[in-house]
Write a structure and sequence with these properties.
7 helices; single chain; mainly alpha
Length: 111
Amino acid sequence: MHRRKQADKQTTTIVDKKISEISTIKSRLFTAGISLLQVDRDYQLPRGTAGTTLREPNVKGERAIAAALGTRPELLWRTRYHASGLRKSPQPRENYVRPATMAQRQNEARA
C-alpha cells in the first residue's frame, strides 16, 4: 500500500527535541555513574525532583543535575534557556507538554 507522507519527511517536532534532550541528559548521567535519586540526595531535593525536572522545568532540579554533571543548566536544556544563558520566564507552554511514552510512540509508528 501507500506509505504515510510523514515517514518521507525529516521533520523535527518540539516533542522530538524534548525526547532527544531527555535521553542525552540521562545518558550523560548513566555514563558518569550518577542516578537521579543520587542527585536528589546529594543536593537535598525532595525525592523525585530530578526525574520530574527531565520532563518539566524546575530551577533547583536543573541546577542540581547540571552541577552533578559539571556543566551549566543552559547547556543541557536549550529549550528552557535563551541563547544568552538567561532562563526563559515564563517558560513556554511546550515545556510542560509530556512526551508520549516509548510504547505509545511504537504503537503510533505501527498504525
